[in-house]
Automatic annotation (TrEMBL):
Gene3D superfamilies: Putative Large Serine Recombinase, Chain B, Domain 2, Resolvase, N-terminal catalytic domain
Ranges that cross the membrane: none
Annotated Recombinase domain residues: 169-277
Name listed for the protein in its UniProt record: Recombinase family protein
PANTHER family cross-referenced by the UniProt entry: DNA RECOMBINASE-RELATED, DNA-INVERTASE FROM LAMBDOID PROPHAGE
Highest rank taxon of the organism: Bacteria
């Protein structure tokens, strides 16, 4: 993100000030419409319309990530500076889908801002809005075409018995042909023995915490820079691809296994036998929503944490557990968690004492 170019926000005139929006997505790289070209289009159109660029909002998101942090920044700026202008180089740089593209523009307008599209104009002009809707539909069509081409390419590669996309599981490396194109995974001589060691420990020492202790003691290479954890062990033991089989779009791809199929199935049975049930879905948390946080006054609701074996429930202040949701009103530092039987018991005792008092 590039900071404001104005010396002081207090002297910013929203009527002639514009925020430029730049968006680069990994599934839209084929069009060569990168940040520099988007910036040039916005700068040229802003100058043509007598607008002064005071800020740039730049985002780079993956094709699999639909979270839009930039939306919140646009909305926050529109709330702070009523009448502020926002300019994008093209509707497909606002979003991929019609409902997202139109939704962002509408929200900015409802907050008092004005959206511009380079080469199209001010969207508060009804005529421009009509062309904007048409271009938004074309943007989604272009996106769907890109996705379809990528899918067809990956499917065709899988049909030829080659690894279609992405990295193989840790413990494998992609074998490549004479042209440098990936073919299929083969065990990595350094890390594959570690994967097999984790599988063997699952059958001998017992639970994943015990396996983790052995792996740490032996100093085995870790799958990530963060090092080993119970989650690392869990991810290896549950990954069926270590048996030498992967399915892409219904197409089966076979390669050399690291964990034999028979051993993998035995491990799943052992893990299922050790798994503790988390209890019925009707948790009996009678106080959820009926009690209030002493610090912020927000509702005390149900919180949960998930382990490989069970989901644990507890009472907590919702603002302290969801700071992003509560950001507008401020969060809460009350991080106290109450086990349902404990808090329910305390409240029932207090209720009984209250109801049985003669006064």
């Amino acid at each position: 993100m590039i900071p404001y170019q104005t010396a002081s926000l207090s002297i910013l005139d929203p009527r002639i000030s514009v925020v430029g929006g730049i968006r680069v997505s990994t599934d839209q790289q084929a069009d060569q419409y990168g940040p520099d070209r988007q910036r040039a289009d916005v700068e040229r159109d802003a100058e043509r319309n007598g607008l002064s660029i005071v800020h740039w909002v730049e985002e780079s998101i993956s094709g699999a990530n639909h979270d839009r942090a930039a939306e919140n920044e646009y909305y926050a700026l529109a709330r702070r500076f009523h009448g502020l202008n926002f300019m994008f180089s093209h509707p497909n740089r606002v979003g991929r889908h019609v409902e997202v593209i139109v939704g962002i523009a509408r929200q900015i307008h409802q907050l008092g801002g004005t959206v511009w599209i380079a080469g199209l104009g001010n969207l508060r002009d009804g005529r421009n809005w009509r062309y904007f809707l048409r271009n938004a539909a074309e943007a989604e069509t272009d996106y769907l075409n890109v996705v379809d081409q990528l899918y067809r390419g990956k499917r065709g590669k899988a049909l030829r018995g080659k690894w279609p996309h992405g990295a193989p599981p840790w413990g494998y490396v992609l074998e490549r042909d004479e042209k440098g194109r990936s073919t299929r995974p083969v065990p990595n001589p350094v890390t594959a023995p570690v994967v097999k060691r984790v599988a063997d420990l699952a059958e001998t020492v017992g639970g994943e915490s015990k396996s983790l202790a052995v792996i740490l003691e032996e100093g085995c290479p870790a799958p990530t820079a963060a090092g080993w954890s119970i989650r690392s062990i869990h991810n290896i033991l549950k990954n069926e691809r270590y048996t030498g089989r992967a399915v892409f779009g219904g197409i089966e791809l076979l390669f050399e296994p690291i964990i034999p199929r028979e051993q993998f199935e035995r491990i799943q049975k052992l893990r299922a036998a050790r798994r503790r049930e988390s209890g019925p879905k009707d948790t009996g948390m009678l106080l959820a929503g009926f009690t209030r946080c002493a610090e912020c006054g927000a509702a005390i609701g149900r919180g949960s944490s998930l382990t490989p074996y069970a989901r644990y429930l507890y009472y907590c202040c919702w603002k302290s557990k969801r700071p992003r949701v509560a950001r507008k009103d401020g969060g809460c530092t009350n991080t106290k968690n109450w086990q349902p039987p404990v808090l329910d018991g305390l409240c029932w005792d207090a209720l009984v004492r209250h109801l049985t008092r003669p006064a």
